[in-house]
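Dataset card, provenance and construction

Sequences and ligand SMILES were collected as paired inputs. For each pair, a complete structure of the chain with the small molecule in place was predicted and serialized as structure tokens. The example below shows a pair involving magnesium ion. Curators did not alter the output after generation; any descriptive sentences attached to a record were derived from the structure itself.
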Amino acid sequence: MLNIKNVNQYYGGSHILRDVSLQAHTGKVTVILGRNGVGKTTLLKSLMGLVPIKTGSIELEGKAIQDATPYARARAGIGFVPQGREIFARLTVEENLRMGLAYKSGSTPIPAELYELFPVLKQMLHRRGGDLSGGQQQQLAIARALAAKPKLLVLDEPTEGIQPSIIKDIGRVIRMLADRGDMAIVLVEQYYDFARELADDYVVMERGEVVAQGLGKDMEANGIRKLVAI
Ligand SMILES: Nc1ncnc2c1ncn2[C@@H]1O[C@H](COP(=O)(O)OP(=O)(O)OP(=O)(O)O)[C@@H](O)[C@H]1O
Ligand SMILES: [Mg+2]
């Protein structure tokens, strides 16, 4: 589904991503692990077209997208849940969900399924985004990304600052979405246990480079916990 090959990215003179290559497959959760500042968010922003890459290629279903606008990438089927959630605080929950449909035709309804995945959103439909708890905002950010029915869902540290019960709910939803078999999921995570539980495949980054990768079930045996312990 997703094939990232030899991507290099710079902020000014700093070489941030160094020949990063990875793949993600439909029906699977690919977890990207790495400590603070190793370039995880920069990689996702490069994937979304929010920062330009210098060299390398990004293919979605075999089509090169590295020169496409963020809008075109969303249309091509990538849903993005940014780090820090980026909920519109002054818009209602319903309006935030509609933002996820911004590039669809005006009459596209919000899929009712989102309220089954996250029942709390239905109860809070007319509340402002800014009035939700951190965990509720995270669920809203995921639902907003799912509204347009993406083929690839990309999440940047969804457990950051969230209470354990909601982390569990989010984990269950991610697993269920992958198991349905019509979506690939890329999950950036620093919380090892959550990553281990969900990973079908894992990738570890250090200083802008991929330093390890393999099957999720081998993470423990391969000593990945030590590589990412903070
Ligand atoms: N807009 C920017 N301009 C210049 N340097 C930046 C910019 N954004 C990030 N960086 C630098 O790029 C490097 C990678 O940052 P990035 O945010 O991708 O890391 P990360 O792995 O997502 O970290 P975290 O786990 O803290 O979210 C860091 O050294 C950071 O200081
Ligand atoms: Mg980050």
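Derived descriptions for this record:
Residues 196 and 216 are 6 Å apart (CA to CA).
The radius of gyration is 17 Å.
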